[in-house]
């Protein structure tokens, strides 16, 4: 899908994040490396507001931009109103249209080890599930719909179908590749690969979006940006994946 072929009414921008009442206590224990607001139960809350704001600015949605530039406390209060039980963990999807109308879709989410929400160490944890990471067999052309998170996700849906990922609950991911053969991102995650004793993640110039956990990982020096060719990925290679609902996930390349 191209930006020129889509009217503002035909898609919305969104960001998905985790609400977890146990997060503030855990974040305080990682105060030196976890960004403000550390007392919020919303994972990387300020980063999600920034991400939506950047998307609204890109698409020149002035009304949406005006709504998104509210005080962070007011933004959190807006999210609170969508949660029926503040004692449980939830997956939230904040959706905003071109007119600045916003809604929050909430779904229960499984309990996780809260340590997975913070920058991972270099050692692995055998008890954690490992996702199978496939490489898309076709390329995706970068656009505003890959640079920013929108509901126009046909390219990502097709990539997941080609990889045989049929359910959001599958412990599997597919890496989206641009026409130059560079890894852009995962369909629902940011990937990280170990090169010369350092974790690297695709640069935004490859066409992927600036995910919230990606920003967190870069800010803490966990990784560097570096172009990654699909041809250099090796079957059985271990990697990390991350997103705003699950945090950091171990993966292994399946080719």
UniProtKB/TrEMBL annotation:
Pfam families linked:
Aminotran_4
What GO MF annotations does this protein's record show? transaminase activity
What keywords were assigned to this record?
Answer: Aminotransferase, Transferase
One of the GO biological process terms: carboxylic acid biosynthetic process
**Which family does the similarity line name?**
Belongs to the class-IV pyridoxal-phosphate-dependent aminotransferase family.
Name of this chain's protein: Aminotransferase, class IV
Q: Which organism is it from?
A: Penicillium roqueforti (strain FM164)
Organism classification: Eukaryota, Fungi, Dikarya, Ascomycota, Pezizomycotina
